[in-house]
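Task 17 of the worksheet. Students: predict the tertiary structure of the chain below and write it out as structure tokens. Keep your answer in the requested format; marks are given for formatting as well as content.
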Amino acid sequence: MKAEITPKEYDAFKTFLQDACGILLGENKQYLVKSRLRRILEENSLDSLGQLLDRLQRPGRGGLRETVIDAMTTNETLWFRDNHPFRILQERLLPEFSESRTTQPLRIWSAACSTGQEPYSVAMIVEEFRRLKPGRLRDVRITATDISRSVLDVARRGEYEMLAIGRGLSPERQKQFFTPSANGGWQVRPTLKSMVEFKELNLLERYMLGKFDVVLCRNVLIYFSAELKRDILTRIHATLNPGGYLILGASESLNGLPDLYEMVQCHPGIIYRKK
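Model answer:
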């Protein structure tokens, strides 16, 4: 990007990004936009953000639009992030559902799953529970969604470099749930991969995923406006089975919606039950 971002260009790009995927860029984030879009501008022989916006408005630019959204929404992730949600799942929710769920599958949704670390972490917790309680929760189905096709491609492959493996994954779990790959990385074992289905989904659009018992929507709502956040949480409520649970990120809260959810204290950690 040869030219500096003008205030007019920045405001126009903020509007584009919010309309496209709901992300609300804060003030003075020009440096973030420049760093994430520099390669895209170079590959398309564009000198400024204004030229990119002009190109995006032309017909038949869906591929470029998806590339820009990918660049602005791809965030780092790690295994067993924040730890508490996975402990709550293992010690409270899975035992609860194992008592009540004898014929119907247990369905879990990992929203904004990025490169797959969260849903595969959930799958590990499920597999560890099964080993402790043989015969329990035989049918668990995890649906993992993200707006970015590129991160979903990584997640579906289930192959990670050693640097990514080392971010939150213990040596014991690495040995149990991964095998070395030919290029020096580590491959998720088939037992975990078979549990997870990855789908492309924009949280602002209609959900056609069915009903769930647990929804993890973590560390993504902080990027949305209060209005969009309320809309997403309301639609997630509609996907939950009666008595189903919503798990948010450590820095996120409902900020209302008392008619839809009730808070459940887990000491430590908080989750929300559908009313």
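Marker's comment: The radius of gyration is 20 Å. Residues 56 and 65 are 6 Å apart (CA to CA).
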